[in-house]
Design brief:
There is one protein chain. The chain is about 50% helix and about 15% strand. The protein contains ten helices and nine strands. Strands 2-3-7-6 form a four-stranded antiparallel sheet, covered by helices on one side. A three-stranded mixed sheet has the order 1-4-5, covered by helices on one side. Strands 8-9 form a two-stranded antiparallel sheet. Bound molecules: 3-thiaglutaryl-CoA (TGC) and flavin-adenine dinucleotide (FAD). 3-thiaglutaryl-CoA (TGC) binds near residues 145, 146, 238, 245 and 369.
Length: about 400
């Protein structure tokens, strides 16, 4: 008989409401029926899953915490986290699609946009009829987005936008992008750039070994005219884009637990079935050490994200706490993916199992939304009060 694998070692389920469990169940079912059967072929072919965004919209995974009057689901932060966890158990590309749309596109439009902008864009984004992208990173400015070179110059009641953004999730397929640029006064402004605007191009970044089921690209602007009504009125500093990152990084802290659990469950199952030296390899101490450490680390990560979710619900989570959770949990998931791959031996490198795909995906997740080292420096600064980013 197949052994039941328990990933709720500290009965964290008891801390969830009936609604949380229902949401998790629904998204888990969606991933089982809509993602798992197609994800391996999509990733191998370097193709996004066809029709993904409307399907994510239909299950309420786009803008889960945006109020219902704008098309969101009006849920709390624990629900958002659980949705991210289940999606990333399918693939980080699917979680990426949902987190960019929710936290990096809908969140700034909801938080910093005018009422007209909210009504114009949010319902379509929530339904997945519109696909959004978030342009902060530039060719010369990744970890230091404050150095951005993309510029807005006033023109005829609006602005001309010039510059380029790089490494942008969903750029090649987006209908609109929330883009961050400095105006002539040196202030950071957020603007909504729509596909079809003259001078706006979105070339795809090819040959990725990671997040192969996600489209990545550039956003290039040559004298793109941005009408005043496309400027987010309520933001004029780096706090704007960085606050969006807080929301996305929080979601990632949960998401990667899903990827880790998928690797862990696969590894346990394999270790119990695979026989070497006339015994299941799960009976060897070295393999048990790996499995025991996986479960310990998953449990610690679950508690960290759950507590962070409560703090976020209360509006008390600090950016530094979010950095710690993102950094710890992504590293945890990547380590579990790498070690699980070893437990599977040669079988760990083929697409019959999800592990190598998760591992390659997590190599991006540990870099985007702030690198592993940058988050460490954020914690270091919080401890000492000293900024080690720059001289
Ligand atoms: P610094 O001088 O420290 O800060 C500038 C101003 O911003 C404030 N601030 C924040 N506000 C809200 N939330 C945060 N997390 C904040 N961090 C800083 C800060 O208080 C200050 O405000 P004020 O009013 O005093 O001016 O800025 P710095 O230039 O020294 O840089 C700080 C640093 C390195 C922490 C920051 O820039 C950073 O986080 N760098 C990493 C860049 C990053 O994460 N990029 C992500 C791009 S988006 C992405 O990767 C999407 S992937 C999506 C997917 O597919 O899932
Ligand atoms: P760099 O900033 O050049 O860093 C290189 C190395 O130097 C890193 O190890 C870093 O930790 C280290 N380093 C940098 N500064 C310091 C320092 N002060 N002290 C010590 N070490 C330092 N961006 C968006 O805006 N929108 C998106 O949708 C988006 N999607 C992405 C999707 C993918 C698949 C990837 C890979 C990236 C995406 N990004 C996106 C960009 C991502 O946020 C950046 O790659 C990330 O912030 C790091 O920037 P960089 O790649 O320029 O690396």
């Amino acid at each position: 008989m197949m052994k039941q694998i328990n990933v709720d070692y500290f009965q964290i389920d008891d801390l969830l409401s009936a609604e949380h469990k229902l949401i998790r169940h629904a998204v888990r079912d969606f991933v089982r029926s809509e993602i798992k059967p197609v994800i391996e072929d999509a990733a191998q072919a370097h193709q996004a899953i066809e029709g993904l965004m409307p399907k994510l919209g239909a299950i309420g995974a786009l803008g889960p915490y945006i109020p219902e009057e704008y098309g969101g689901a009006g849920l709390d932060q624990i629900s958002y986290g659980l949705i991210m966890q289940e999606l990333e158990a399918g693939d980080s590309a699917v979680r990426s699609a949902a987190s960019v749309q929710s936290s990096l596109v809908m969140y700034p439009i909801y938080t910093y946009g005018s009422e007209e902008q909210r009504r114009k864009y949010l319902p379509g984004l929530a339904a997945g009829e519109l696909i959004g992208a978030f342009g902060l990173t530039e060719p010369n400015h990744g970890s230091d987005p404050g150095g951005m070179e993309t510029r807005l110059t006033a023109k005829n009641g609006g602005f001309l936008l010039n510059g380029a953004k790089m490494w942008i999730t969903n750029a090649p397929i987006c209908n609109l992008a929330v883009v961050w640029a400095r105006d002539e006064a040196g202030k950071v402004r957020g603007v909504i750039v729509e596909r079809g605007m003259d001078g706006f191009e979105t070339p795809e970044t090819l040959h990725k070994w990671s997040l192969r089921a996600s489209k990545t690209g550039e956003l290039v602007f040559h004298d793109v005219f941005i009408p005043a009504e496309n400027v987010l009125p309520e933001v004029n500093s780096m706090r704007g884009p960085l606050s969006c990152l807080n929301s996305a990084r929080y979601g990632i802290s949960w998401g990667v637990i899903g990827a880790a659990i998928d690797c862990y469950e696969t590894a346990v199952q394999y270790a119990l079935e695979r026989q070497q030296f006339d015994r299941p390899i799960g009976g060897f101490q070295l393999q048990q050490k790996k499995l025991a450490e996986f479960l310990t680390e998953i449990t610690k990560a679950q508690l960290l994200s759950w507590r962070l979710g409560l703090l976020k619900n209360e509006g008390k989570a600090t950016p530094q706490q979010i950095s710690m959770a993102k950094r710890n949990n992504v590293h945890m998931a990547l380590q579990i993916a790498r070690e699980s791959r070893q437990i599977l031996g040669g079988m760990g490198i083929v697409g019959d199992f999800p592990i190598m795909r998760h591992m390659m995906n997590l190599e991006s997740v540990i870099t985007y939304e702030g690198t592993h080292d940058i988050h460490l420096l954020i914690t270091g600064q919080d401890i000492t009060g000293l900024n080690a980013f720059s001289s």
